[in-house]
Amino acid sequence: MAEVKPGGQPAAELSEAAQSELLDLCEDQFAQLEKLQNEIILCEPDLCENPQEQSVNRLMATDAELKQWLTVEPKLLAANSEVLLQAGKEEMLKLCSELEMVLSCYEAKRDKLRETKELEQKWLEEKKQVLIAATDHAERLQMEKEKLSEHSVLQDTKAKIRKMKVYQENLMESLGDVLEKHVPLPQNESSTNRKKKNIELGLNEDLISLNEILEVLMNKVLNTPHDPYVMIDDTFWPPYIEMLLRYGIAVRHQENNFKIRLETFF
């Protein structure tokens, strides 16, 4: 490859003979171009006035000229090897310069793509970290939700139990008030001769109220459901026991008449 001067021209110069031959070829080509230009100028007045027909004629002429050029074999501009070598060197230098430009463009594009790839990989890593963090947060929220749900159920159950206890206490108080009012103990009949009457009736001073009898029966059922029977002692007033048995509130033991239990109401 020939050495290139700062002006872009090859360092080697053509000989005088080659320069003379090249100038003659240039003059011949220039003369031929002048001849073709004159022929074109002379043909222009004969053109038809119809623009459409004129376009069709030009298209046909161009097509015919193309076909003619396709049949013509290319010829060398000059037969001098020195001229051809110099022209080849110039074309090679031009081609190398264009290839260097293409290479530079592709290298710049490659660097740009590499930078874009690094940015995309960095963005992908960041998104993976965000996804991991979001997944962990979602799992933690799900666990907290489950715990909160269990805690809510537990608190709701406790609230219901407290409510039932309050309702039971109110119900027992109401039952005690009703029983105290309508079914009082015999000794509650106040008189100056209460002890004398108790002795005459055979009453025990330790008798418990009907409310207490019911409470003992209910506690026995709740605490020992497998053995709900209560032994009747002297603190149970017989009329109360008879009333509970008669109205189906309590039942006797099948083998022991001194045992009773609360009737099953469900």
Automatic annotation (TrEMBL):
Coiled coil segments of this chain: 96-151
Subcellular location field: Chromosome, Centromere; Nucleus
Predominant subcellular localization, coarse grouping: nucleus
Taxonomy, superkingdom: Eukaryota
GO cellular component: chromosome, centromeric region; nucleus
Record key words, sorted: Centromere, Chromosome, Coiled coil, Nucleus
One biological process term in Gene Ontology: mitotic sister chromatid segregation
Pfam families, sorted: CENP-K
InterPro entries from the UniProt entry: Centromere_CenpK (IPR020993)
Homology family: Belongs to the CENP-K/MCM22 family.
Cited PANTHER family: CENTROMERE PROTEIN K
Record-given protein name: Centromere protein K
Organism, as annotated: Seriola dumerili
